[in-house]
Fold:
Amino acid sequence: MREIKFRSYIKKHQEFIFFDLYCVETNMEEGRIEICNVDISEIENEDQFIGLKDENGVEIYKSDLLRDGYGCIFEVVEDERQACSGYRIKLVKREKKNQKHLKIGRCFDFSSWYFPEIDLEIIGNIYENKELLNEN
Structure:
């Protein structure tokens, strides 16, 4: 069973908070909901741990940017049609000019790409590394 964990990027503080379901506190007298001592009104996104780790053993979350051994960059996206995990990887950038057959925006199942000879490595996320999303 996959561990249920989340992260949220707090733009105001320019950092992530990581939490699980046990980290939520409600104070109805003050009309506040807090996650890990952060007011929920500061949270603009919520990315879930997808249950996989990259080639370095780092947990992969939705909105992470991954690079494969061929220099392609992918974004982890949610896909309700994906029965196993609910997540796929979407090609956002090709670093090599000879990869024109790979269409930007095309989604792949993790099983299509996640093999020992084609490992994926986290190189950033869509919140802090927007420059990685620009196609050459």
